[in-house]
Write a structure and sequence with these properties.
alpha/beta; Rossmann fold; Alpha-Beta Plaits; 2 domains; six-stranded parallel beta sheet; 9 helices
Amino acid sequence: MKRAVVIGLGIFGFNIVKELYENGFEVIAVDKNKDTIQKIRDLSTKAILADGTDKEVMESIGIQEDDVVIISFGEDLAAATLITLHLREMNVKHIIAKAPTEDHKRVLEKVGATEVVIPEKEMADKVARSLISPNVLDYIPLSEDYTICEMAPPVSFYGKTIGDLHLRSRYHVEVIAVREVLPDRIEMVPRADFVIKDSDVLVVIGREEDIERIK
């Protein structure tokens, strides 16, 4: 069974614990607030009342090299940095840290976090994109240039095949999957003769500016 250790149970950390536990993870939740530990007790495998910055406490929990450890400390960069350093000394391979700013992100990456997320920024980007490009339902940036995104097909696509649209030659965009709402299924790498319906969701890969041209 996969195991995760979540240190710091603010809104972000609390919900990470809940989601992982409900999806089959063994989850150890750590926080120094007694009320928070009481609330998370039934939503985790084990809830521990402790100071996550104490290395002896972390060692006593029995954190293993292959565990995923998630550090969620809001604005407290000193605490997040100290825990990250301790985890690196314990040879933990996968350390995910929450940061409030890009500056904090760079510091945590420097001291050994394998992944740093800025939830507020990522959510702001997502909301802004939904307003700028209403037909883009979700997107995953792969690099500074390339993106995978889910998008509702423009009206001009309805009833046409993927081959008819010539997306690769006209827009340099590739359709890698189609999520059909009716019926509920996913068509991976659809054939050129696949006919697009108004209820379909296209999963495409390409440069952001090329995807924008489609809309």
